[in-house]
Write a structure and sequence with these properties.
Helix content is about 25%, strand content about 25%. It is globular, with a radius of gyration of 21 Å. The chain has helices at about 10-20, 45-70, 85-90, 125-140, 150-160, 175-190, 230-235, 240-245, 265-270, 315-320; strands at about 1-5, 35-40, 100-105, 110-115, 165-170, 195-200, 205, 210-215, 220-225, 250, 280-285, 290-295, 300, 325-330, 340, 345-350, 355-360, 370, 375-385, 390-395, 405-410, 410-414. Helix 2 (about 45-70) crosses helix 9 (about 265-270) and helix 5 crosses helix 6.
Length: about 425
């Protein structure tokens, strides 16, 4: 694995816009799509990363089954009223499309799981289309870990018989989300499915019909929503989504709440201790906000084996981990993170996410030098389509926290 500096293509802005990426430059003039560099991998490294993605998928599905079997929903901050829908969806397997593992890897040692966005991952157009077209022009003799476009179309064809038509694509009014929706809608249409696109706030509820309706009062049955389940459940129509869940086809299905949740990380560590692909992780039992939702709507502390209250008061997550990152169960785009090194806070971000948190050990240092003394911190996104690792995209930050403004940098296999 190497980071290689390159001259951007002449007129690259127009080229990526023609392929659909209109959000290519940040407001400060810095490129979001950054082709002034690329990451180069060997074929053996890609084989290892693909195997890691497939192994992590199997482990996460086993962890979800464990949560269901052991009724550990409260530790994940999942409301009790959502449990019947989650268990119905898990057992009946309504269509699911995609997810993305965020991985730390520096070319040495095994890759490490940072988290799993199994519900609302973005940067898909960049990974599936834009970097492929870049490679064809810049490195036509090279290859890329990328069968995403074909796999998405095949998956839509596979689930088409289980979906009422049309398929609605709904999300919020943000450039990144709208790009992802438009691209996924395009793959569905290439698979032969009729589609419509709208904003989440345009979804209506007809109380008399007990049904979700579009702006034309047509009943909606199949909805791809680029909108987190935990947010949906907190809003006014969340109860309607639960009450009508078996009549609808929401993509992603509600059982993805179990995986797109930082709480799955300590559960994975409990189930697979010291696994090469995992980072040591614990529920944060010491912090006041580290708690699980109880059935009466309050918060009760979670006591883990080996933590205070289990006969080992001196062995808490904070004493076991000296270098770690604290994350809320539900957080996105690098918000509300705290980095602690040798017991002292070295960096923190603000944001809207509060509530229960986890602690995760630092991954092995992943820093690549750039031009003029710049440093670059890549995070690899391993994309899962139809339960199989089907491609990779790389987001790059100038510091240890990746956020929504971090650049997307292409890759090649040579």
């Amino acid at each position: 694995m190497q980071r290689i500096s390159l001259p951007p293509r002449a007129g690259w802005q127009q080229k990526v816009e023609a392929a659909g990426l209109t959000f290519h430059t940040l407001e400060n003039g810095q490129p979001y799509w950054d082709e002034s560099a690329c990451y180069e991998f060997s074929a053996s490294e890609i084989d290892m990363l693909e195997e890691a993605g497939n192994t992590l998928q199997e482990m996460c599905l086993a962890a979800a089954q464990h949560v269901i079997d052991e009724k550990r929903y409260a530790e994940l901050g999942i409301p009790e009223e959502a449990v019947p829908a989650i268990e119905w969806a898990w057992n009946n397997e309504p269509p699911a499309l995609y997810g993305r593992f965020d991985i730390a890897y520096n070319g040495e040692g095994p890759p490490k799981l940072l988290e799993y966005n199994a519900d609302t991952p973005t940067s898909l157009l960049e990974a599936a289309v834009i970097q492929w077209q870049w490679m064809e022009e810049v490195f036509p003799e090279a290859d890329q870990f990328n069968s995403l476009h074909e796999q998405l179309i095949d998956k839509w064809k596979d689930v088409a018989p289980f979906l009422s038509k049309p398929i609605y694509f709904a999300g919020v009014e943000s450039p990144e989300d709208q790009l992802t929706l438009a691209y996924l809608r395009d793959t569905a249409e290439q698979a032969g499915l009729p589609t419509l696109q709208m904003y989440m706030e345009e979804i209506g509820w007809n109380d008399e019909r007990q049904a979700f309706v579009d702006p034309n009062e047509e009943q909606m049955f199949s909805v791809f929503k680029l909108y987190p389940w935990e947010v949906m459940l907190s809003e006014e129509f969340g109860s309607h989504a639960l009450d009508t869940y078996t009549e609808m086809r929401w993509i992603e299905p509600i059982w993805k709440l179990l995986l797109s949740n930082k709480g799955i990380l300590p559960i994975l560590w409990q189930l697979y201790p010291n696994h090469d692909l995992l980072l040591e992780s614990y529920f944060d039992t010491a912090a006041p906000q580290a708690a699980a939702a109880s059935s009466n709507g309050g918060w009760q502390p979670v006591i883990l084996p080996g933590a205070a209250g289990d006969g080992a008061a001196s062995s808490t997550p904070q004493t076991r981990l000296r270098d770690y990152i604290r994350k809320p169960l539900f957080s996105r785009e690098g918000a509300n993170l705290t980095l602690v090194r040798d017991g002292a806070v070295v960096a923190a971000t603000d944001g809207p996410y509060i509530g229960p948190q986890i602690l995760q050990a630092f991954a092995p240092e992943t820093i690549f030098p750039g031009i003029g003394g710049a440093t670059h911190y890549p995070v690899l996104g391993l994309w899962m389509i139809d339960q199989a690792c089907s491609g990779m995209g790389i987001r790059e930050a100038s510091g240890p926290i990746t956020d929504n403004l971090s650049s997307f940098v292409p890759h090649v296999i040579r």
